[in-house]
């Protein structure tokens, strides 16, 4: 894949070094341009022209020495809308951002504008939580066998061509509180396994991607299944597909993506379904 550019959205806080380091690592690995975007609140940007020049210089002075082609942009406007507009205008392949506890660009992923960003982002959004030490080695991808989760799998495989891909489907046994038959449990498991096999046999999944995938089904709620699989596979990146129409209230698998983003300690790649 010939990568076009990576867009890093940053608020210049103490925690922004994590997404910056990951974005720099990816830009170097992909041999592509890194666009560093800082957004000013219109209500607080008094002398806009002066502020922008000063902030651009501050960012340039504080950037670590590297061999990556970096473009610094400081804009005034709505956070999510400005990120989306910039990603579209610059034809970026990936949006990278972080997570912060309080008012910051990272809060868009644990609060207000996240809904707008995920629903409308033209490319996958990588939420960096951990300080990067090395390239991703194991990627955990949640699936419900939908078109949305298929796109998430293919997007992750295309962006990250080297790591092992662990595909997991969390399922429930219907009426398990009333039906205790081992045969019923086995039948449900067999049906889910068949669905997984059919999903991986789809023409939309190339042989190259198929060979990289380790697929499995796990009984239980999504949160519990993801927690166990992260530990078992030593995954350092979790991938979730999101339905654009339902915003963060519905990630694939019927889960609340905002909740998953809140507790997962690994980096998370959010992939919006495209029609």
From TrEMBL:
Pfam families for this protein: Usp
Keywords: ATP-binding, Nucleotide-binding
Matches recorded under CDD domains: USP-like (cd00293)
Highest taxon above the source species: Bacteria
Domain UspA, chain residue ranges per copy: 4-129, 136-272
Family membership noted in the UniProt record: Belongs to the universal stress protein A family.
Designated name of the protein: Universal stress protein
Annotated organism of origin: Parasphingorhabdus flavimaris
């Amino acid at each position: 894949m010939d990568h076009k550019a990576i867009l890093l959205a940053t608020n210049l806080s103490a925690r922004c070094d994590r997404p910056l380091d990951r974005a720099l690592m990816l830009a170097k690995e992909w041999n592509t341009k890194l666009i560093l975007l800082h957004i000013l609140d219109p209500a607080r940007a008094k002398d806009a022209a002066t502020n922008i020049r000063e902030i651009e210089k501050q960012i340039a002075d504080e950037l670590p020495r590297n061999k990556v082609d970096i473009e610094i942009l400081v804009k005034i406007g709505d956070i999510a809308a400005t990120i989306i507009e910039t990603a579209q205008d610059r034809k970026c392949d990936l949006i990278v951002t972080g997570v912060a506890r309080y008012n910051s660009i990272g809060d868009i992923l644990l609060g207000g504008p996240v809904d707008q960003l995920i629903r409308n982002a033209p490319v996958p959004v990588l939420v960096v939580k951990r300080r990067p030490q090395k390239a991703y080695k194991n990627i955990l991808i949640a699936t419900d066998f939908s078109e949305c989760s298929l796109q998430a799998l293919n997007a992750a495989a295309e962006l990250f061509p080297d790591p092992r891909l662990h595909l997991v489907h969390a399922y429930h046994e219907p009426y398990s509180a009333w039906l205790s038959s081992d045969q019923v449990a086995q039948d449900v498991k067999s049906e889910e396994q068949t669905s997984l096999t059919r999903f991986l046999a789809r023409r939309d999944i190339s042989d190259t991607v198929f060979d990289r995938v380790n697929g499995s089904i796990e009984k239980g709620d999504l949160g519990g299944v993801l927690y166990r699989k992260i530990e078992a596979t030593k995954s350092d990146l979790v991938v979730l597909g999101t339905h654009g129409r339902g915003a963060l209230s519905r990630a694939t698998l019927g889960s609340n993506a905002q909740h998953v983003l809140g507790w997962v300690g690994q980096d998370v790649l959010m992939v919006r379904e495209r029609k």
